[in-house]
């Protein structure tokens, strides 16, 4: 919409006489035609997710956070603080519902050692539930759900306390092998390109 408004302003005549309704309509149509010729941004339909937990060794988590930062990726946590157990006679509540917004402010300190080095931290319990993540770290190529999601299976998965480079190399090898069996798979082609982009940004490191 902003681009449309800017285009419309550009096409308006610079003199100050009043425009007739017909002239205004013509200008609007010209602006719409111009906008339609602009390249359209496409939403990604797959992504690389790194599922982690504060229960991991701090050194491993910090190294993974630094590597993820350089690769343009984020570390995703299930939540903040300690999960609570609801009493049998009460309506189930999440930690956030029980303790309110202040919970996040209190627990942001838990992630400071990561954010201080520029790591991108995300809180996404839905990711953990959707992919039944019970062990971390886990580096995955997953379908992106913009609305209701029909897919709850990751496309590719690498598990274990290894470097991000090692995990991405493993995903790249797996995607390449699967692509040999399914050369027509656009999903695997996109996955391979996505992984290669992250590896390029990461550079040569252990």
Mind explaining what this structure looks like?
The protein has helices at 2-11, 21-36, 58-71, 95-99, 102-107, 112-115, 125-130, 164-181, 186-202, and strands at residues 46-51, 74-77, 120-123, 138-143, 156-159. The protein folds into two domains: 2-36, no CATH class; 46-202, Glutaredoxin. The chain is 47% helix and 12% strand. It has a five-stranded mixed β-sheet with strand order 3-2-1-4-5. Strand 1, helix 3 and strand 2 (74-77) form a beta-alpha-beta unit. Residues 1-17 and 34-43 have low confidence and may be disordered. It has 206 residues and is of the alpha/beta class.
Helix and strand layout, with pairings?
Layout: H1 2-11, H2 21-36, E1 46-51, H3 58-71, E2 74-77, H4 95-99, H5 102-107, H6 112-115, E3 120-123, H7 125-130, E4 138-143, E5 156-159, H8 164-181, H9 186-202
Parallel strand pairs: 1-2, 2-3
Antiparallel strand pairs: 1-4, 4-5
Give unreliable regions as ranges.
1-17, 34-43
Total of domains: 2
Rg of Cα set: 24 Å
> How would a crystallographer describe the biggest sheet?
5 strands, mixed
Number of distinct beta strands? 5
Q: What would the principal axes of the Cα set say about the shape?
A: globular
Q: What's the architecture of the largest domain in CATH terms? A: 3-Layer(aba) Sandwich
Class derived from helix and strand content: alpha/beta
The number of distinct helices, counting runs of at least 4 residues, comes to 9
Helix content: 40-55%
Per CATH, what is the topology of the largest domain?
A: Glutaredoxin
CATH class of the largest domain: Alpha Beta
What is the succession of H and E elements?
HHEHEHHHEHEEHH
Mean pLDDT: 78
């Amino acid at each position: 919409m902003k681009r449309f408004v800017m285009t419309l302003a550009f096409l308006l005549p610079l003199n100050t006489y009043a425009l007739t309704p017909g002239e205004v309509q013509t200008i609007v149509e010209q602006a719409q035609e111009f906008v339609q010729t602009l390249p359209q941004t496409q939403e990604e339909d797959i992504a690389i997710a790194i599922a982690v937990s504060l229960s991991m060794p701090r050194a491993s988590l910090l190294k993974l956070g630094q590597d993820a930062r350089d690769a343009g990726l984020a570390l995703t946590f299930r939540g903040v603080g300690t999960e609570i157990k609801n009493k049998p006679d009460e309506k189930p509540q999440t930690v956030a519902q029980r303790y309110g917004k202040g919970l996040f402010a209190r627990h942001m300190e838990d992630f400071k050692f990561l954010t201080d080095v520029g790591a991108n931290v995300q809180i996404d319990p839905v990711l953990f539930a959707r992919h039944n993540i019970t062990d971390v770290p886990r580096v995955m190529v997953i379908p992106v759900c913009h609305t209701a999601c029909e897919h709850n299976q990751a496309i590719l998965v690498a598990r274990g306390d290894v470097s991000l480079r090692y995990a991405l190399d493993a995903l790249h090898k797996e995607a390449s092998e699967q692509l040999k069996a399914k050369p027509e798979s656009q999903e695997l082609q996109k996955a391979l390109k996505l992984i290669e982009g992250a590896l390029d940004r990461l550079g040569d490191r252990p």
